[in-house]
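Let us practice reading a record.
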Amino acid sequence: MARNELRPVVKLRSTASTGYTYVTRKNRRNDPDRLELRKYDPVAGRHVTFREER
């Protein structure tokens, strides 16, 4: 059960308004705030910022 509390599954949604999402895990101790990663959005055809959604 400790695995789910420390490293929850988070959904990263594209800021390009395409609706594309990535699913990943994050460490709450290292990243207590919302996660932001720059990843490839195949719908937009370019790299965009993906933000954690709750």
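A brief commentary: The chain has a mean pLDDT of 92.
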